């Protein structure tokens, strides 16, 4: 397989795997907390949360319910962050003996894992686009819900997430990666975008409605 095509394919698959594994993170944590979860192509539904909310509202158990909800929300982002961390650590280990090369399949797979953090950049860009275009505060994303739960300033929180995640991606791309960087950016970007679009609008709704 041509090296550029391999980069495209790896990131095409990674976009789908990243979306599903993120939702699996929600589902696994939710099931551990006693929620009845259902995995969809882009969401994880909690089928008994509404009943639990109504049953505990106004009681001493409501704070425990809210705490469990926050852990449920954390499940997806935490899975994404830990996967990216594993890939980044792998790159650091490899770099001690070799220069990171996007055409090396082992290096490429580690790069794909480390780029799971790109979800945070993409989601934050969407957040700011929605905010500036509608003048309303988006609230459906995981980070939106978590910032609200911790009573954090949403604009400051979203800005910090965007800056931190972007800095990590820049460091991986322009410091760790040494060889075939331009090809990696072009074909990895095209692969990720293609995988994301096809999964969310074509493949995902048919396989996991």
Description:
- The chain has helices at residues 3-32, 49-56, 62-95, 105-114, 118-134, 142-149, 154-176, 181-207; strands at residues 37-39, 44-46, 100-101, 177-179.
- With 209 residues, the chain is mostly helical.
- It has one domain (3-207).
- The strands form two sheets. Strands 1-2 form a two-stranded antiparallel ribbon. It has a two-stranded parallel ribbon with strand order 3-4.
- Helix 1 crosses helix 4 and helix 1 packs across helix 8.
- The chain starts with a helix and ends with a helix.
Question: How would you describe this structure in keywords?
Answer:
4 strands, 75% helix, 209 residues, elongated, two-stranded antiparallel sheet, 8 helices, mainly alpha
Task: Write a compact overview of the structure shown.
The chain has 209 residues and is mostly helical.
Largest sheet: 2 strands, antiparallel
What ranges have pLDDT less than 50 throughout 5 or more consecutive residues? none
Protein structure class: mainly alpha
**Shape, per Cα inertia axes:** elongated
End-to-end separation in angstroms reads: 33 Å
Give the total of domains.
Answer: 1
Summarize model confidence as the mean pLDDT. 95
SSE order:
HEEHHEHHHHEH
If you compute it from the alpha carbons, what radius of gyration comes out, rounded to the nearest whole angstrom? 19 Å
Helical content class:
over 70%
Q: Give the strand tally.
A: 4
- In spatial order, strands of the major sheet run 1-2
Number of helices: 8
Strand content: 5-15%
